[in-house]
Amino acid sequence: MAPGPLTTIAHGDLSVDIAPQAGGRIAQIRHRGVEQLIGPHDGTPAMIAWGSYPMVPWAGRLRHGRFSFGGRDYRLPLNHGEHAIHGVAFGLPWQVDAHAQDRAELSLPLPQDRRWPFGGVARQAIHVQAQRLEMRLSLQAGTQAMPAVIGWHPWFRKPDRIEFSPTRFYPRDPHGIATLPLTVPPPGPWDDCFINEADVVVHRAGQRLRLTSNCVHWVVFDEAAHATCIEPQSGPPDAFNLEPTLLLPGETLEAWFLIEWQ
């Protein structure tokens, strides 16, 4: 997926390229000239495999694209083998509603069709300050109630190491889908969802990045040789079947994600 025209925001040593047409994602983060994300031209053409994109209205794998809600059964289109993954927003063009030197705001009316029958509106606010990148994401229900999970999927260039101390994790079944009950986190490598309320620290290229969020669900994928994904989200993969969050008509789910250079 080509990034399309970029919207850039910057403050001092920190600059962020946003690709509104490519799922409203951050295409690149640069601090003192060091690029931190896998970019669109790094030999990873799949749209789910570069930048840092919002996951809306669900995050991670939704088992076979199936779930029940409000007394009805739904099946969403499959986009990752036998499963539906990471929502619909990462593959749709977002509207830039505001753009200043150090901030941008974007929005996306969600489809109300077979891809996602509930509609709603997603919004992002991205703000850079000295040594700090703040991201806010929200999902507002439309005229009908709906399930909802939101989060971010950053593809960090392979860190030298990460500091990550989760307390519990969701075991994966033979299909790679998160299950319950929660248990003790295993040693890596991982492609798993964890409960984590501590800072996550990324060390790479002489820089130290501190990651925090109001989300307590974090997915870490570090099995790839070229990248590590560290993903704060409001619920686990397959949340519509495991731990559904309900939005009533007009209600909003909000989350924030902060990266600080130390």
Q: What CATH first level would be assigned?
A: Mainly Beta
CATH structural architecture: Distorted Sandwich
Give, in spatial order, the strands making up the sheet with the most strands: 10-11-12-13-24-20-19-16
Mean pLDDT: 96
What percentage of the residues does DSSP assign to strands (E)?
over 45%
Low-confidence stretches: none
Q: Could you estimate the helical fraction of the residues in percent?
A: under 10%
> Main β-sheet: number of strands, strand sense, barrel status?
8 strands, antiparallel
- Specify Rg, calculated over alpha carbons: 17 Å
State the separation between the terminal residues, measured CA to CA.
33 Å
Give the ordered list of helices and strands. EEEEEEEEEEEEEEEEEEEEEEHEE
Structural class by sheet pairing and helices: mainly beta
What's the shape? globular
CATH topology: Beta-galactosidase, Chain A, domain 5
Provide the domain count: 1
Instruction: Tell me the number of helical segments per DSSP (H or I, 4 or more residues long).
Output: 1
Strand tally: 24
Give a structural overview.
It is globular and about 55 Å long. Helix content is 2%, strand content 47%. An 8-stranded antiparallel beta sheet has the order 10-11-12-13-24-20-19-16, with no helix packed on it. The protein has one helix at residues 239-242; strands spanning 7-11, 14-19, 25-31, 34-35, 52-55, 61-62, 66-69, 72-75, 84-85, 95-100, 103-109, 121-129, 132-140, 146-147, 151-157, 161-163, 168-170, 191-195, 200-204, 207-213, 217-221, 227-233, 246-247, 252-261. The chain has a single domain, classed as Beta-galactosidase, Chain A, domain 5 (Distorted Sandwich), CATH 2.70.98. The chain is mainly beta and 262 residues long. It has 1 helix and 24 strands. It starts with 6 loop residues before the first strand and ends with a strand.
